Amino acid sequence: MRKLSHAELGNEPIDPELRACIQEELATLPGSRVVKRHGHLFFQNRSGRFEILCSRLCEIKRRRIELVENADLPDEDKWKIFCLLLAADARLEEVPGVGLKVTLPASHRH
What residue numbers bound the domain in which 21 lies? Predict the structure, then answer.
């Protein structure tokens, strides 16, 4: 059984930028929450089926805004890139003269 406690952000000594990012996500996704486990803050959706380290979520959002938000891509492709960053642990980088490059981690063959 995992030891979870709902975190009150006002009581947590975290970076103001991270705090703002978390508060934005909480406001955007009704029913979501922040839990603290082993000293780390995790963002959970309403059902608790999706969970991500808060600092990782905010870093992914920062990179998406920096590289994808104003890219000359259809909105559908921008959403796909964001989903790959979240779910597939993809890496995103800008390649001069080419554009954006999304790299997926190597998969293990069975």
Answer: 5-103
Chain mean position to CA 44 = 11
Count of domains observed in the chain: 1
Question: Is there a domain that residue 108 lies in?
Answer: no
Q: Is residue 66 part of a domain?
A: yes
Task: Name the nearest CA neighbour of 105 among 84, 90, 94, 95.
Answer: 90
Q: Which two tokens stand for residue 91?
A: 């890496």
Q: Which two tokens stand for residue 41?
A: 């803050």
Give the single-character DSSP code of 9.
G
Closest CA to 17 of 59, 69, 68: 59
Helices 54-67/16-28 angle, 10° precision: 90
Read off the pTM.
Answer: 0.71
Inside any domain, residue 89 = yes
Instruction: Encode pLDDT of 47-85 as tens digits.
Output: 888 888 999 888 888 888 888 888 888 899 888 888 888
- Spatial neighbors of 3 by CB under 8 A, at least 6 apart, are 37, 38
